[in-house]
Sequence to fold (1447 residues):
Amino acid sequence: MYDGTVATLFFYLFAVASIALALGVVLGRRLLRSAVCLIGVLGSSAGLILVLGFEFIAGIQVLVFIGGIVVLLLFAIMMTSEGHTFEQRPNAARRVMGGIVATAFFVVTLSVYWNTDFPLVSKEGLAVSHEDVHAIGRKLLSNERDGYIVPFEVISLLLLAALIGGIVIARKHDPEDT
Amino acid sequence: MTGFLFENAWMIPALPLISILLIGLFATGSNARAAGIIGSVAIGTAFLLTCGLGLSYLSSAAAGASAVTWSIEWLRYQDHLVVSMGTLIDPISLLLLFVVTSVSLLVHVYSIGYMAGDEGYSRYFVFLSLFTFSMLGLVLAPNLLQMYVFWELVGVSSFLLIGFYYTLPEAIAASKKAFIVTRFADLFFLAGILVLGFFVHQLVVDPAWGGVSGTADQSAAATQALDFATINSERVLENLKGQAGIFGLDLLTVAMLLVFIGAAGKSAMFPLHVWLPDAMAGPTPVSALIHAATMVVAGVYLVARLFPGFAASGDALDVVAAVGCFTCLFAALIACTQRDIKRVLAFSTLSQIGYMMLALGVASAEHPAGLGAAMFHLFTHAFFKALLFLGAGSVIHAVHSNDVADLGGLRKKMPLTHATFLIATIAIAGVPPLAGFFSKDEILGAALDGEHRLVFGVGLFVAALTAFYMFRLYILTFLGGHKSDGAAKAHESPPIMTIPLVVLGVMSVCGGWIAVSQFVLPGVELHAHLLVMGLSVAAAVVGIGAAFWLYGGQSNRAQTMAESMGGIYRLVQNKFYIDEVYLLVTKMIFRFIAAPAAWFDRHVVDAAMNLSATVVRWLGARLNVLQTGQVQTYGIWMINGTILVLLFLWLVQR
Amino acid sequence: MFPTPTITHWLTLSALLFSIGLYGIFTRRNAVGVLLSIELTLNSAILNILIFNRFVASDDVDGQVLVLFIIAAAAAEAVVALAIFVSFYRHRHTLDVTQANHIYDQGNRTS
Amino acid sequence: MSWLSLLILIPFATALAVVATPDSKWYVRRWVALFGTGVVLALSLVMSLSYMQAVQQRGGDASVLTISQMEFEQSIPWFKSMGIEYHVGVDGIAMAMIVLTAIIIFTGVLASWEVKDRSREFYAFLLVLVTGVFGVFISVDLFLFFLFYEVAVLPMYLLIGVWGTGRKEYSAMKLTLMLMVGSALVLVGMLALYHAAGSQTFDLNKLAMVDYSRDLQQWVFPCVFVGFGVLGALFPFHTWSPDGHASAPTAVSMLHAGVLMKLGGYGVLRVAVYLMPEGAKQWALFFLVLTTINIVYGAYAAVRQTDLKYFTAYSSVSHCGFVLFGLCSLNLMGFKGAVIQMFSHGIMTGLFFGLIGMVYGRSKTRDLTKMGGLSKRIPWLATSFYIAGLASLGLPGLSGFVAESTVFLGGFFGNRWGDATTMRICTLLATSSIVVTAVYVLRGLSRVFQGPMTKSEFNQMQDATIPEKLCTGILVATLAIVGMYPPVLIDLIEHAILPIANRF
Fold:
């Protein structure tokens, strides 16, 4: 799918969208509004992934990331503060400090990128994108040397633990509480 | 100089030491009475040993020979600076041995009576034996450091004896004062030892020097820097005189002056005399032994022992003469005005020691007659002054008061004490044929020989003063009416106290006839000075006449004379307020040095240490601000940290 | 008019997204807001991996497998975070992060 | 297993034995401690005799060698890689210090006969402290030296902090912190030397063979000197000593002033002066002036003190000044005087603090002004106090004089590197301290013991009990023996000092 001008166009479109929406998430005063912006960002980044040629991952992204996690966040927002509460702005020192840190990090990462020349794949390799979902599946469960079976088992344990933890913590255990 | 007595001369000082141990073990508590007997027996045998030693010395040894008959290595500082404990036998030390052992024996016997019934009885005799031990050790010392060791021990035992009645505040103050003043003087003595030790050692060590006798014989290796033999040898003295000391004086004079200050302190010469009058707070036999006959003459003995050094340095001798002469006059003036019987005698001792120092001062290498005269006067003075003190003691014992005002009319009440006291008074006044006359005459003669006109004049005047204040004391104490009921009820002291008085009386009478100065200076021809004899007798008569004229009859001529002099009389009576000046100086030293030192330590040095603690705590508090408890700040600092590390790595790598 | 995006463009984009997320984490006052920003940074991380997968190691799928794991972890993390926020809200009736500094013992603040 | 290791094992074993005795029989505990320390005392005396014989047999002219000869040597490799080994050996100086420590701990146990509360831990810590001290004196390996140095310093904190009086926590904290700073400096110096010598060995004698560069010694010497000086009560760092001693219980301040402060002097002699002659030559004059201040300043400060323990603490600051003064004169007599002063002052202060504990036990006050006329009721203690006082003011016939006269002569003789006049002025200033010492000793003692009885309840004071008599008796006897016949001590240390003196 990565073929010349259409891809470039989509890249810039999605790039601008994701940055704008990201700023929305971060600077937004109403929580619900920033949650929605987050959905937007994830959506546009799914598009970017498509531009990169990974349809499966883009699908997962939309399905799990947006569908699962962000929806969960929305529930949380609803349960705790009815979403529309007006969050006061953090004190100036914190915002300045945060800004400095973020830009400093950005500058440093950029300088790293600029100074390293990555071993790029040859020009023509770029065009051909033959995504192979089968290969993902096989690698995910193969137990040879470069297989991911162990992380796979571990991540399932992690998910189970998170599940139980979440229930235990959020359980109402003192009756007098509303 | 060989023979049993010489090799074991160390037994003489050892006997009192043994008596200390015996008393300490057996004569405490119930059978305390034995202490007196043990002490007296020990010092008695020591006295006999000394007589034996003296006789065998006179018969066998060449006149004036001096040798170290016994010594063991005591303290090894460095090669050529090895200090040993030993016994040096020569005329002066024999003379002193005889004086110390005889007077000490008599004082021991006298004390058995005087101190009877006192609850610190055995403690008294322990201290007395300790004193005698250290005095004998001092007399026999062959080197300067052993003399310093026993010098300090004498100081301590005098401190213990003065402070014997330790419940009386003035006795404590007097003992502390005595010890600290003498200690101050000993500081200079020690400085003198350091100077002599160093420069003589420097000389002895360098091979080119060639030993005491100029020839590098085997004795060179054995010469020790601080031995008297080494110090007094001409080659050492020349060398020392050649080197420059400080304040423009040559090294020898500086060393001799330092040592003289130590001697002046112990013999209570002018600036350091303040402790002797207060030392009368101790028991009277103690004053008799220590503050009349033995300890106070230690200074004179030291100067005599280092006489070649003093003679070689010349101006050191002039200082000795000056100090001696001034003290002699100064003390005699004060003695005329004192009311306490023991203080009069104390100042009279000061004056007589001034005489001895004066005699030493006028002597010189060419005609050392002064040295002989000083030793002769020391010999005679020991006896009649001890007699005066013991007589005063028996008077105080009977009347229980020191003040002349409530004595008087004791002639009939205490005949024996009166007789012996009168003999001693005549002796000290310098009336022939008694002892005082001969020795004082020799001193004045020596002064004339050495063309010291002024010193001779002062000496003559003081002779008159001495006669005056002694007879003033005699009249006020023994003649006239009973001035207090105590005096009325007085009765003669028990025989154990009067026998020593009689013995001392005999010695005071015939002491003068012994040719002591001839014994001390064998080679030197001594001629009598008829003119001087006449003048001194005249001075004595004038003094006695004045005393009888002023205090003789019932008239209060003395009273009127005192008022007429007005302020001067009170000034002299208060000892020219020197005590008060010293008190002020010491107070100031303590207030302006000791107090700030203590304050400085507590508030500055200590505070500095505490300051470092508070600084650390303050720093901790400042860092505490960072721990706000909010997760986000931690996040920020974490990222900052990573960025800084990256930057640093990047810089280093470039 | 627009140059075809090289890897540096892509990386700049993902870095920018990450920084915005960081800013959000440090400045949001509400706990869930912080969580949102965290999800944003996670997403930029995923993008980053895929960029490298595409431009550098285009013939193996490790990158994509890793992305799957990241998403799973993000889900787990979100669950636990929200549980904590819920119980925190129940106790403190607020989700303001700056109030949550109870680990800081006011006692020993001496100066 | 050379005899020396016994010197550490026996006290440690006694400590364990003391801990093992059950609380019901607490009085047995002091007998166990006494027995242990008694054995150590006997052992140390026997060893000093056999040391003397060993030196005679070895013979050889000591005045030529520049490396100190150790007897009863034994070394077991410990950390082979770093060249650290359990290397023990003793020479004359160490032998004298071991005898001193044995005497002080034996009399210390006697002096703390009445300690009842938690006596188990008290005796245990005391014995651990002594084990550390013995360890320092027998160790030849610098690492081992430092290890035992720390073992000796640490129990002080607990001993003062728990059993002390007055502001005990403050003093304990201050004392330990300042000593820690001192030992930190020492560690820095040691490691510098170790590194400069090629980091193969910590052995003292092997390190002594290396001649370090001048500018290394320029900064390492003051570092080590001040490090040990803090413990040896060097002038600006002495402030822990008055507070520390004032709050410490009797036996602890006996042990601390008597022995631990000598560790400072011993360390300076053994590590600073012995290993770094060049550094010593450059810095000697500076520290000489500092120690003169130490002596004179300590004496003057003592005059104003009204608390008996502060009075003695300041006097021991002044006397420790003599030790360091002797070391700074860098000649044979200076070193010999310093070592004799270490021994004699150890005994003297031990006696002083022991007696103060006993008087405090009876009069329940340490304030001079509140006490008076005690010598009628407690003659034995009064006489021992006076003997200690006279020893401290340097009366001949007691060991004080022997030490002080040697130090003064050493100072006056001076050396080629220090400017002669300043050294002589400093020596005369130091000599003038004997007058000030006389003043404050006599003032203090006469106010407590002489004069009329101030308080009526002092009347029922009884005189010294048997253990107290034994304790004071031993200490007074030692003072007198060394004072009257100094060759007893001088022959022991003479042979050991020559090698150190020959290095200059």
